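Deliverable D5.2: sample structural annotation.
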Amino acid sequence: MTQQFHDNVLDTPVLDQLFNEARTYNGWLDKPVADSQLMAIWDLMKMGPTSANMQPIRIVWVKSQDEKDRLAGLASEGNQDKIKAAPVTAIIGYDIDFHEELPWLFPHADAKSWFEGDEDARIKNAARNSALQGAYMIIAARALGLDCGPMSGVDLDRITEVFFADQPRVRADWVCSIGYGDKDSLFERSPRPDFEKFTRIA
């Protein structure tokens, strides 16, 4: 069906892996995720578009059991076991001073000057574009055969203090467990709206 649009449309099995059959997992198989897999996720997700290539996302990949336990202690009760059991949980944060990196990330213009002296604008741009990058991370992980379990039921202020202590201008925004999902932990997929429900063509 999708082939009617363009010859370059991805095959249905690929679309299923990325979207149609992909799920948000709450349980995990006891199967590790290698550092090389996390690097491969990064190498894909960094290619997704951001405004002026600002790349504001900052990630802590929490892998060791001690650090997973520490992170779980900063999560809601319903999320603690998910974090402890997952091979990796990524803490997605954003750098308020991302503009300091723009001279090399976006050499086509003096983009740094666009944001100097306007922290509110930097926060808005950093939050929006890092959220985009987090979505790219999920798609990249799925493309590499991994599953994801994004969640927001965590104490972001404490996570910022604990995990970004060495980066005082970074703020934690959400977390996402990554690994091999346990299909037995899934419940029936929640409804998804038809095109007309929430969109219109103007």
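Annotation notes: The mean pLDDT is 96. Strands lie at 57-62, 88-95, 147-151, 170-179.
The annotation will be released with the project's public dataset once the embargo ends.
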